[in-house]
Amino acid sequence: MGKVLSEQQIRAYVEQGFVSPIDVLSEDEAAQYLQRLEDAETQYPEWANPHKRNNVHLSFKCLDELAHHPRVLDAVEDLLGSHFSLWGTVLFCKDPESPHYVSWHQDATYMGMSRDTFVTPWLALTDSNITTGCMQMIPGSHRGEIVKHEDTYGEFNILTRGQQVIDVDETQAVDMILKPGQMSLHHAKIIHGSRPNQSTKRRVGFAMQSYMPPEVEQVIGKNLWLDVRGRNPRKNNTVLRRPAHDLDPVSMSDRALADTNMDDILYRGAAQKRNF
Ligand SMILES: O=C(O)CCC(=O)C(=O)O
Prior knowledge:
The chain is α+β, with helices and mostly antiparallel strands and 276 residues long. It has a single domain (7-266), classed as q2cbj1_9rhob like domain (Jelly Rolls, Sandwich), CATH 2.60.120.620. It contains five helices and 15 strands. The model has no long low-confidence stretch (mean pLDDT 97).
Protein backbone atom coordinates (compact mmCIF):
# COMPACT_ATOMS: atom_id res chain seq x y z
CA MET A 1 0.00 0.00 0.00
CA GLY A 2 1.32 3.44 -0.90
CA LYS A 3 0.36 6.73 0.77
CA VAL A 4 -2.72 7.08 -1.44
CA LEU A 5 -2.68 4.28 -4.01
CA SER A 6 -3.26 0.62 -3.22
CA GLU A 7 -0.87 -2.08 -4.51
CA GLN A 8 -3.51 -2.93 -7.08
CA GLN A 9 -3.70 0.68 -8.31
CA ILE A 10 0.10 0.93 -8.52
CA ARG A 11 0.15 -2.32 -10.51
CA ALA A 12 -2.62 -1.00 -12.78
CA TYR A 13 -0.52 2.10 -13.51
CA VAL A 14 2.54 0.01 -14.33
CA GLU A 15 0.61 -2.40 -16.55
CA GLN A 16 -2.02 -0.15 -18.12
CA GLY A 17 -0.27 3.23 -18.04
CA PHE A 18 -2.99 5.01 -16.04
CA VAL A 19 -4.99 4.79 -12.84
CA SER A 20 -8.37 6.40 -12.18
CA PRO A 21 -10.42 7.66 -10.41
CA ILE A 22 -8.53 8.91 -7.33
CA ASP A 23 -10.36 11.08 -4.79
CA VAL A 24 -8.54 14.36 -4.09
CA LEU A 25 -11.19 16.92 -3.09
CA SER A 26 -14.75 16.65 -1.88
CA GLU A 27 -17.35 17.90 -4.39
CA ASP A 28 -17.82 21.01 -2.21
CA GLU A 29 -14.10 21.74 -2.20
CA ALA A 30 -13.94 21.22 -5.97
CA ALA A 31 -16.84 23.68 -6.40
CA GLN A 32 -14.95 26.24 -4.27
CA TYR A 33 -11.77 25.82 -6.36
CA LEU A 34 -13.82 26.12 -9.56
CA GLN A 35 -15.40 29.32 -8.25
CA ARG A 36 -11.97 30.79 -7.40
CA LEU A 37 -10.66 29.85 -10.84
CA GLU A 38 -13.71 31.30 -12.63
CA ASP A 39 -13.44 34.51 -10.57
CA ALA A 40 -9.79 34.76 -11.66
CA GLU A 41 -10.77 34.13 -15.31
CA THR A 42 -13.42 36.86 -15.11
CA GLN A 43 -11.28 39.39 -13.25
CA TYR A 44 -7.98 38.82 -15.07
CA PRO A 45 -8.88 37.23 -18.42
CA GLU A 46 -5.48 38.07 -19.87
CA TRP A 47 -3.82 35.59 -17.47
CA ALA A 48 -6.18 32.61 -17.79
CA ASN A 49 -7.93 31.94 -21.08
CA PRO A 50 -7.82 29.30 -23.84
CA HIS A 51 -4.78 31.04 -25.38
CA LYS A 52 -3.06 31.59 -22.03
CA ARG A 53 -3.68 28.23 -20.43
CA ASN A 54 -0.13 27.12 -19.55
CA ASN A 55 1.37 27.55 -16.09
CA VAL A 56 -1.64 29.38 -14.67
CA HIS A 57 -0.52 27.97 -11.29
CA LEU A 58 2.25 30.59 -11.32
CA SER A 59 -0.38 33.35 -11.48
CA PHE A 60 -3.17 32.23 -9.16
CA LYS A 61 -3.08 30.73 -5.68
CA CYS A 62 -6.00 28.37 -6.29
CA LEU A 63 -4.07 26.37 -8.90
CA ASP A 64 -0.80 26.65 -6.96
CA GLU A 65 -2.58 25.04 -4.00
CA LEU A 66 -3.86 22.21 -6.21
CA ALA A 67 -0.42 21.58 -7.69
CA HIS A 68 0.88 21.21 -4.11
CA HIS A 69 -2.13 19.36 -2.72
CA PRO A 70 -0.88 16.56 -0.41
CA ARG A 71 -3.25 13.99 -1.99
CA VAL A 72 -1.88 14.79 -5.44
CA LEU A 73 1.75 14.71 -4.29
CA ASP A 74 1.30 11.57 -2.18
CA ALA A 75 -0.26 9.71 -5.11
CA VAL A 76 2.60 10.84 -7.37
CA GLU A 77 5.10 9.73 -4.72
CA ASP A 78 3.51 6.26 -4.78
CA LEU A 79 4.48 6.05 -8.46
CA LEU A 80 7.76 7.99 -8.66
CA GLY A 81 9.36 7.79 -5.21
CA SER A 82 10.01 10.69 -2.88
CA HIS A 83 12.00 13.08 -5.12
CA PHE A 84 10.25 14.95 -7.92
CA SER A 85 9.61 18.39 -9.41
CA LEU A 86 6.78 19.88 -11.45
CA TRP A 87 7.54 20.88 -15.04
CA GLY A 88 4.35 22.83 -15.88
CA THR A 89 0.57 22.80 -15.94
CA VAL A 90 -2.16 23.15 -18.56
CA LEU A 91 -5.79 24.14 -18.01
CA PHE A 92 -7.86 22.06 -20.41
CA CYS A 93 -11.32 23.65 -20.58
CA LYS A 94 -14.07 22.79 -23.03
CA ASP A 95 -17.06 25.11 -23.31
CA PRO A 96 -20.60 23.70 -23.40
CA GLU A 97 -21.55 22.24 -26.78
CA SER A 98 -18.17 23.12 -28.29
CA PRO A 99 -16.45 21.16 -31.06
CA HIS A 100 -13.02 21.18 -29.40
CA TYR A 101 -11.28 17.85 -28.98
CA VAL A 102 -7.86 16.33 -28.29
CA SER A 103 -6.48 13.90 -30.87
CA TRP A 104 -4.77 10.63 -29.90
CA HIS A 105 -1.26 11.45 -28.76
CA GLN A 106 1.59 10.64 -26.36
CA ASP A 107 2.61 13.54 -24.10
CA ALA A 108 6.34 12.75 -24.20
CA THR A 109 6.50 13.27 -28.00
CA TYR A 110 7.33 16.98 -28.01
CA MET A 111 8.18 17.70 -24.38
CA GLY A 112 11.96 17.52 -24.85
CA MET A 113 12.69 15.38 -21.80
CA SER A 114 15.68 13.06 -21.45
CA ARG A 115 13.50 10.18 -20.20
CA ASP A 116 9.85 9.30 -20.21
CA THR A 117 9.37 8.19 -16.62
CA PHE A 118 6.94 10.90 -15.65
CA VAL A 119 3.35 11.15 -14.57
CA THR A 120 0.50 13.61 -15.18
CA PRO A 121 -2.36 14.02 -12.71
CA TRP A 122 -5.48 15.40 -14.43
CA LEU A 123 -7.82 16.84 -11.82
CA ALA A 124 -11.48 17.39 -12.70
CA LEU A 125 -13.13 20.56 -11.35
CA THR A 126 -16.39 19.70 -13.14
CA ASP A 127 -17.92 16.43 -14.26
CA SER A 128 -15.73 14.78 -16.85
CA ASN A 129 -17.65 12.00 -18.58
CA ILE A 130 -18.64 10.69 -22.00
CA THR A 131 -21.02 13.61 -22.65
CA THR A 132 -18.68 16.38 -21.49
CA GLY A 133 -15.69 14.89 -23.40
CA CYS A 134 -13.57 13.06 -20.83
CA MET A 135 -10.09 11.76 -21.57
CA GLN A 136 -9.80 8.28 -23.06
CA MET A 137 -6.73 6.05 -22.73
CA ILE A 138 -5.47 3.09 -24.72
CA PRO A 139 -4.37 0.59 -22.04
CA GLY A 140 -0.78 -0.69 -22.28
CA SER A 141 0.17 1.74 -25.07
CA HIS A 142 2.84 3.30 -22.79
CA ARG A 143 4.93 0.12 -23.00
CA GLY A 144 6.09 0.67 -26.58
CA GLU A 145 8.14 3.50 -28.03
CA ILE A 146 6.94 6.94 -29.06
CA VAL A 147 5.04 6.26 -32.29
CA LYS A 148 4.79 8.49 -35.35
CA HIS A 149 2.59 11.57 -34.89
CA GLU A 150 1.18 13.61 -37.76
CA ASP A 151 0.84 17.37 -37.15
CA THR A 152 -2.68 18.19 -38.42
CA TYR A 153 -3.24 21.69 -36.94
CA GLY A 154 -6.95 20.76 -36.96
CA GLU A 155 -9.12 23.84 -36.35
CA PHE A 156 -10.88 22.44 -33.29
CA ASN A 157 -7.99 20.33 -32.04
CA ILE A 158 -6.73 21.94 -28.82
CA LEU A 159 -3.29 20.33 -28.92
CA THR A 160 -0.54 22.74 -29.98
CA ARG A 161 0.17 21.09 -33.35
CA GLY A 162 -2.98 19.01 -33.52
CA GLN A 163 -0.55 16.12 -33.39
CA GLN A 164 -2.16 12.76 -33.94
CA VAL A 165 -1.25 9.10 -33.76
CA ILE A 166 -2.70 7.26 -36.75
CA ASP A 167 -4.09 3.72 -36.53
CA VAL A 168 -5.37 3.71 -32.98
CA ASP A 169 -7.69 0.85 -32.14
CA GLU A 170 -10.42 2.98 -30.57
CA THR A 171 -12.38 -0.09 -29.50
CA GLN A 172 -9.74 -0.50 -26.75
CA ALA A 173 -10.25 3.02 -25.34
CA VAL A 174 -11.10 3.38 -21.65
CA ASP A 175 -13.06 6.46 -20.50
CA MET A 176 -11.63 8.42 -17.56
CA ILE A 177 -14.95 9.24 -15.92
CA LEU A 178 -14.33 11.69 -13.08
CA LYS A 179 -16.54 13.55 -10.65
CA PRO A 180 -15.51 17.06 -9.60
CA GLY A 181 -12.56 16.63 -7.20
CA GLN A 182 -11.32 13.32 -8.65
CA MET A 183 -8.19 12.83 -10.73
CA SER A 184 -6.64 10.36 -13.10
CA LEU A 185 -2.88 9.72 -13.33
CA HIS A 186 -1.30 8.92 -16.68
CA HIS A 187 2.10 7.90 -18.01
CA ALA A 188 4.19 10.07 -20.37
CA LYS A 189 3.82 7.56 -23.22
CA ILE A 190 0.19 6.48 -22.88
CA ILE A 191 -1.84 7.13 -26.05
CA HIS A 192 -4.81 9.25 -25.05
CA GLY A 193 -7.25 11.86 -26.36
CA SER A 194 -10.72 13.28 -25.79
CA ARG A 195 -13.88 14.05 -27.76
CA PRO A 196 -15.96 17.26 -27.91
CA ASN A 197 -18.16 18.44 -25.08
CA GLN A 198 -21.74 17.70 -26.13
CA SER A 199 -23.26 18.77 -22.83
CA THR A 200 -24.68 22.12 -21.75
CA LYS A 201 -22.04 22.40 -19.00
CA ARG A 202 -18.41 23.44 -19.06
CA ARG A 203 -15.71 20.77 -18.66
CA VAL A 204 -12.70 21.97 -16.66
CA GLY A 205 -9.59 19.85 -16.10
CA PHE A 206 -6.28 20.87 -14.57
CA ALA A 207 -3.38 18.83 -15.97
CA MET A 208 -0.24 18.96 -13.84
CA GLN A 209 2.10 18.14 -16.67
CA SER A 210 4.12 16.63 -15.36
CA TYR A 211 5.78 15.55 -12.11
CA MET A 212 9.25 14.18 -12.87
CA PRO A 213 12.06 12.61 -10.84
CA PRO A 214 15.46 14.37 -10.92
CA GLU A 215 16.92 12.00 -13.51
CA VAL A 216 14.49 13.46 -16.07
CA GLU A 217 16.00 16.62 -17.54
CA GLN A 218 14.95 19.07 -20.19
CA VAL A 219 17.24 18.66 -23.22
CA ILE A 220 15.80 21.10 -25.78
CA GLY A 221 15.02 24.19 -23.73
CA LYS A 222 15.84 25.57 -20.30
CA ASN A 223 15.54 23.53 -17.11
CA LEU A 224 12.88 25.50 -15.21
CA TRP A 225 11.33 23.49 -12.42
CA LEU A 226 9.08 23.95 -9.43
CA ASP A 227 10.57 21.98 -6.56
CA VAL A 228 7.74 20.13 -4.91
CA ARG A 229 9.15 17.19 -3.02
CA GLY A 230 12.56 15.84 -1.90
CA ARG A 231 15.85 16.84 -3.53
CA ASN A 232 16.02 17.43 -7.25
CA PRO A 233 19.52 18.38 -8.40
CA ARG A 234 19.71 19.03 -12.15
CA LYS A 235 22.36 20.64 -14.28
CA ASN A 236 21.64 24.32 -15.01
CA ASN A 237 18.48 24.14 -12.96
CA THR A 238 16.37 27.24 -12.31
CA VAL A 239 13.86 26.87 -9.51
CA LEU A 240 10.54 28.57 -10.23
CA ARG A 241 8.93 30.57 -7.41
CA ARG A 242 5.38 30.07 -6.13
CA PRO A 243 2.89 32.94 -5.98
CA ALA A 244 2.50 34.38 -2.46
CA HIS A 245 -0.79 35.89 -3.70
CA ASP A 246 -2.68 36.17 -6.98
CA LEU A 247 -0.61 37.89 -9.69
CA ASP A 248 2.47 38.01 -7.46
CA PRO A 249 5.05 39.83 -9.65
CA VAL A 250 7.78 37.38 -8.56
CA SER A 251 5.99 34.24 -9.80
CA MET A 252 4.50 36.16 -12.76
CA SER A 253 8.00 36.92 -14.05
CA ASP A 254 8.83 33.22 -13.66
CA ARG A 255 5.64 32.36 -15.55
CA ALA A 256 6.73 34.56 -18.43
CA LEU A 257 9.98 32.57 -18.62
CA ALA A 258 8.24 29.21 -18.27
CA ASP A 259 5.55 30.03 -20.88
CA THR A 260 8.13 31.15 -23.44
CA ASN A 261 10.27 28.11 -22.73
CA MET A 262 7.30 25.76 -23.10
CA ASP A 263 6.28 27.40 -26.40
CA ASP A 264 9.82 27.17 -27.78
CA ILE A 265 10.00 23.48 -26.87
CA LEU A 266 6.54 22.38 -28.00
CA TYR A 267 6.74 24.23 -31.34
CA ARG A 268 10.35 23.40 -32.11
CA GLY A 269 10.56 22.52 -35.83
CA ALA A 270 6.78 22.90 -36.27
CA ALA A 271 5.38 24.07 -39.61
CA GLN A 272 2.97 26.45 -37.82
CA LYS A 273 2.87 28.18 -34.48
CA ARG A 274 -0.60 28.58 -32.97
CA ASN A 275 -1.53 30.96 -30.16
CA PHE A 276 -1.88 28.41 -27.36
O1 LIG B 1 -8.11 17.50 -21.29
C1 LIG B 1 -8.10 16.75 -22.25
O2 LIG B 1 -9.11 16.44 -22.86
C2 LIG B 1 -6.79 16.15 -22.72
C3 LIG B 1 -5.67 16.42 -21.78
C4 LIG B 1 -4.38 15.77 -22.13
O3 LIG B 1 -4.15 15.36 -23.23
C5 LIG B 1 -3.37 15.64 -21.08
O4 LIG B 1 -3.59 16.07 -19.95
O5 LIG B 1 -2.28 15.07 -21.37
